[in-house]
Amino acid sequence: MGAAGSKGAAPGTPPPEPGAPAAECPASAPAGPVYDVYNRRTDGGGPAPAAGGGGGGGGAGGWSWRGALGLDPRNNMPAAANQMPAPGQAKPISTERAQSNIPKGGTAGTWQYPSPQMFYNALVRKGKADDVEEDDMDSVVRVHNGMNEDTWREVTRWELLHRGECGGPKLRRFVGRPEDLSPLARVRYMLGGPLPFDRHDWYVDRCGREVRYVIDFYFNEDKAGTPEQFDLTVRPALDSFDSALDRTKMFIYVECAKRGLPCPISGTEGLVGKEMAGECPVKPEVA
Q1: What distance in Å separates the CA atoms of residue 27 and residue 249, rounded to the nearest whole number?
Q2: pLDDT value at position 111?
Q3: pLDDT greater than 80 at residue 120
Q4: In a domain, 101, yes or no
Q5: What single string gives the DSSP state of each residue in 72-84?
Q6: How far is 169 from 152, CA to CA, in rounded Å?
Q7: Dihedral (C-alpha) 135, 61, 233, 160: value to the nearest 10 degrees?
Q8: How far apart are the C-alpha atoms of 253 and 265, rounded to whole Å?
Q9: Which of 267, 158, 134, 143 is nearest to 215 (CA)?
Q10: Do 86 and 137 meet the contact criterion of CB atoms below 8 Å apart?
Q11: Can you tell me the distance from the alpha carbon of 95 to that of 115, in angstroms, rounded to the nearest whole number?
């Protein structure tokens, strides 16, 4: 993906109930380093941290192959977007790039998705292009882009819990971690469930505060070829007490919304619970 400002409440001011009008974050310099979707620093800083330290990575955010020629030594990624045909490529592939609806941290715009050619080149570099035809790349990229849009919609639903402190969260960067099972995915597998085919960690800029989300991607064989073929499990990582509290609140909101009961936290059914229960669509805010 190639995936944007708001004034926060004064310190010590309690946020309004979920569903209240969004506050804006203060206009200020970007908080922390700025990355593109390939985990490259775009603000002239140093390399991204390693995946084990909360950044860096694999998948779309930095691959496990290292030492290849033509890589930026700061991040082990191509120094420039590669739109050239890959070695052995038999047919031309589109180099057009689509703009996403995902606000990009550190900017006033949104992330830009890779072109089909860039995506194909990435598959070649990772050794995953053997069963991919050049003619498939347009549809592969459409599916990839759609999953990213769905992921951001799920993230913005969680971020409704913090609309009082930030009305315009943005995606700062993300890291692909396909080999790392999340604790939830591991438990589900031990209980007889399927394994996810991919995992991402998304780092969201909540008006100056970086928050990590964990996303597990599952393929639903029974719905292959339909819009419901992919299942996403999105939740804030348990990196802090606030994230654990968010998970608890969301569980209560959703269960109350499903049953049409007043929420013991807000006193109403609440917008957040209805969003997560799928009773009304969320509209992400894009600057």
Answers
A1: 29
A2: 93
A3: yes
A4: yes
A5: ETTTTEESS---S
A6: 10
A7: -120
A8: 8
A9: 158
A10: no
A11: 5
Is 259 part of any domain?
no
pLDDT greater than 50 at residue 2: no
User: Number of structural domains, the chain?
Assistant: 1
Q: Which domain range does residue 95 map to?
A: 51-248
Residues 54, 59: Cα–Cα separation, whole Å: 15
Answer whether 176's CB lies under 8 Å from 57's CB: yes
- Which single residue is written with the structure tokens 């939830």? 184
| 2 lies in some domain | no
Nearest one of 180, 203, 183 to 111, comparing CA atoms: 203
Average model confidence (pLDDT) for the chain? 73
Closest CA to 263 of 280, 284, 277: 277
Position 135 confidence tier, pLDDT thresholds 50, 70, 90: very high
What pLDDT, in 10s, does the model give residues 243-278? 999 999 888 888 887 777 776 655 444 555 555 555
In a domain, 36, yes or no: no
Contact 62, 75 (CB under 8 A): yes
Give pTM, 2 decimals: 0.69
Local structure of 50: helix, strand or coil = coil
Half-sphere exposure of 221 (CA within 13 A, CB side): 5
CB atoms closer than 10 angstroms to residue 20? 14
Type of residue numbered 144: H
* Nearest of 158, 121, 185 to residue 247 by alpha carbon: 158
Give CA–CA dist 271/257, Å, rounded: 9
